[in-house]
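Issue 218. Parser rejects a valid record. Input:
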Amino acid sequence: MSRVFAFRDSWEVPAVPADVHGVLVDLERYPSWWPEVLAVASLGPDDARVLCRSALPYTLDLVLHAVNRSPGVLEVAVSGDLVGSVRYDLSPVPGGTRLDFAQEVRVAGLLGLASYVAGPLMRWNHDRMMRGCRQGLAARLAG
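Output the parser choked on:
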């Protein structure tokens, strides 16, 4: 069994888009500023293996493949425990950058089956993970 989850969020950080892009494209340094990203291993110039865990006692094992790294867009294809895509659109705003986040992933196997009962809990877990991203990214960009 599988289930699709779609997430959208927007927030602003007090840094220029080029600086935000530089931090987001540097996957191997995510564990230094995003608490829920436990480890990142490069698998080549366009691919990385990422282990992440939020509040629930489950570590996601993901492989990310760079699809677009243009100055205003960062997009990756996701495989592993989740299958789908993640995208950040970066736009300049007064005082910094607006990030528009979009994720659409399919969850399969036992995790997919559990998602039919625990869907709200999984969404809460994702919200916690993204809160860590927002806070960590702002702190990283601040210095």
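Fixed in the parser; the record now loads. The chain has a mean pLDDT of 95.
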